[in-house]
User: What shape does this take?
Amino acid sequence: MTEIRKILHVEDDADIREITYLALAEFGGFEVLQCSNGTEAIKKAAKFAPDLLLLDVMMPGLSGLETLTKLRRQDELADVPVIFMTSKDVTSKHHSDITERAVGAIQKPFDPVALPDQLRAIVFNSA
Assistant: This one.
Protein backbone atom coordinates (compact mmCIF):
# COMPACT_ATOMS: atom_id res chain seq x y z
CA MET A 1 0.00 0.00 0.00
CA THR A 2 1.13 3.50 -0.76
CA GLU A 3 1.40 5.48 2.45
CA ILE A 4 -0.26 8.85 2.22
CA ARG A 5 1.52 11.60 4.13
CA LYS A 6 1.17 14.63 1.85
CA ILE A 7 -1.99 15.66 0.02
CA LEU A 8 -2.40 18.36 -2.60
CA HIS A 9 -5.99 19.61 -2.37
CA VAL A 10 -7.38 21.81 -5.15
CA GLU A 11 -10.77 23.42 -4.49
CA ASP A 12 -12.18 26.79 -5.53
CA ASP A 13 -14.73 27.07 -2.68
CA ALA A 14 -13.09 28.62 0.40
CA ASP A 15 -15.52 27.02 2.86
CA ILE A 16 -14.95 23.54 1.45
CA ARG A 17 -11.18 24.15 1.49
CA GLU A 18 -11.34 25.07 5.18
CA ILE A 19 -13.46 22.06 6.15
CA THR A 20 -11.27 19.74 4.09
CA TYR A 21 -8.10 21.15 5.61
CA LEU A 22 -9.40 20.57 9.13
CA ALA A 23 -10.47 17.05 8.22
CA LEU A 24 -7.16 16.12 6.61
CA ALA A 25 -4.68 17.94 8.83
CA GLU A 26 -6.41 17.76 12.22
CA PHE A 27 -8.33 14.47 11.98
CA GLY A 28 -6.08 12.70 9.49
CA GLY A 29 -2.64 13.99 10.43
CA PHE A 30 -1.71 14.70 6.81
CA GLU A 31 0.50 17.48 5.56
CA VAL A 32 -1.78 19.43 3.22
CA LEU A 33 -1.09 21.97 0.51
CA GLN A 34 -4.24 23.70 -0.66
CA CYS A 35 -4.69 25.58 -3.90
CA SER A 36 -7.73 27.57 -4.93
CA ASN A 37 -7.38 26.79 -8.64
CA GLY A 38 -5.67 24.55 -11.13
CA THR A 39 -3.11 27.10 -12.26
CA GLU A 40 -1.83 27.54 -8.70
CA ALA A 41 -1.67 23.75 -8.25
CA ILE A 42 0.34 23.30 -11.43
CA LYS A 43 2.92 25.83 -10.19
CA LYS A 44 3.26 24.39 -6.66
CA ALA A 45 2.60 20.66 -6.92
CA ALA A 46 5.96 19.23 -7.96
CA LYS A 47 7.87 21.11 -5.26
CA PHE A 48 5.39 19.87 -2.63
CA ALA A 49 5.75 16.26 -3.86
CA PRO A 50 2.29 14.99 -2.81
CA ASP A 51 1.44 11.34 -2.21
CA LEU A 52 -2.16 12.02 -3.29
CA LEU A 53 -3.94 14.57 -5.48
CA LEU A 54 -7.41 15.55 -4.25
CA LEU A 55 -9.09 17.60 -6.98
CA ASP A 56 -12.45 19.28 -7.30
CA VAL A 57 -13.88 18.49 -10.74
CA MET A 58 -15.78 21.72 -11.42
CA MET A 59 -13.71 24.89 -10.98
CA PRO A 60 -13.56 28.18 -12.86
CA GLY A 61 -10.62 28.42 -15.22
CA LEU A 62 -9.10 24.96 -15.38
CA SER A 63 -11.42 22.14 -14.35
CA GLY A 64 -10.10 19.34 -12.17
CA LEU A 65 -9.83 17.12 -15.24
CA GLU A 66 -7.83 19.77 -17.13
CA THR A 67 -5.67 20.38 -14.06
CA LEU A 68 -4.92 16.67 -13.82
CA THR A 69 -3.90 16.55 -17.49
CA LYS A 70 -1.38 19.32 -16.89
CA LEU A 71 -0.13 17.85 -13.59
CA ARG A 72 0.50 14.50 -15.29
CA ARG A 73 2.90 16.23 -17.70
CA GLN A 74 5.27 16.81 -14.77
CA ASP A 75 7.41 13.71 -14.33
CA GLU A 76 7.25 13.90 -10.52
CA LEU A 77 3.43 13.74 -10.63
CA ALA A 78 2.88 11.25 -13.44
CA ASP A 79 1.99 8.36 -11.15
CA VAL A 80 0.57 10.10 -8.07
CA PRO A 81 -2.90 8.70 -7.33
CA VAL A 82 -5.80 11.11 -7.75
CA ILE A 83 -9.19 11.24 -6.09
CA PHE A 84 -11.82 13.63 -7.35
CA MET A 85 -14.24 15.48 -5.07
CA THR A 86 -17.49 16.26 -6.79
CA SER A 87 -21.23 16.57 -6.58
CA LYS A 88 -23.48 13.72 -7.66
CA ASP A 89 -24.53 15.59 -10.82
CA VAL A 90 -20.93 16.09 -11.90
CA THR A 91 -20.05 12.47 -11.16
CA SER A 92 -22.83 11.34 -13.48
CA LYS A 93 -21.82 13.73 -16.25
CA HIS A 94 -18.09 12.90 -16.10
CA HIS A 95 -18.32 9.28 -14.90
CA SER A 96 -16.05 7.76 -17.56
CA ASP A 97 -13.35 10.45 -17.18
CA ILE A 98 -13.38 10.05 -13.41
CA THR A 99 -13.25 6.25 -13.41
CA GLU A 100 -10.54 6.13 -16.10
CA ARG A 101 -8.26 8.78 -14.61
CA ALA A 102 -8.70 8.48 -10.85
CA VAL A 103 -8.49 5.81 -8.18
CA GLY A 104 -11.82 7.06 -6.81
CA ALA A 105 -14.19 9.89 -6.06
CA ILE A 106 -15.66 11.47 -2.94
CA GLN A 107 -19.08 13.02 -3.24
CA LYS A 108 -19.89 16.39 -1.73
CA PRO A 109 -21.16 16.98 0.83
CA PHE A 110 -18.79 14.65 2.67
CA ASP A 111 -18.33 13.67 6.30
CA PRO A 112 -15.19 15.53 7.48
CA VAL A 113 -14.51 13.04 10.28
CA ALA A 114 -14.66 10.09 7.88
CA LEU A 115 -12.73 11.75 5.04
CA PRO A 116 -9.18 10.71 6.04
CA ASP A 117 -10.15 7.05 6.34
CA GLN A 118 -12.13 7.22 3.09
CA LEU A 119 -9.07 8.49 1.24
CA ARG A 120 -6.82 5.83 2.78
CA ALA A 121 -9.31 3.10 1.88
CA ILE A 122 -9.65 4.26 -1.73
CA VAL A 123 -5.88 4.38 -2.23
CA PHE A 124 -5.37 1.02 -0.45
CA ASN A 125 -8.07 -0.67 -2.54
CA SER A 126 -6.59 0.69 -5.76
CA ALA A 127 -3.13 -0.74 -5.11
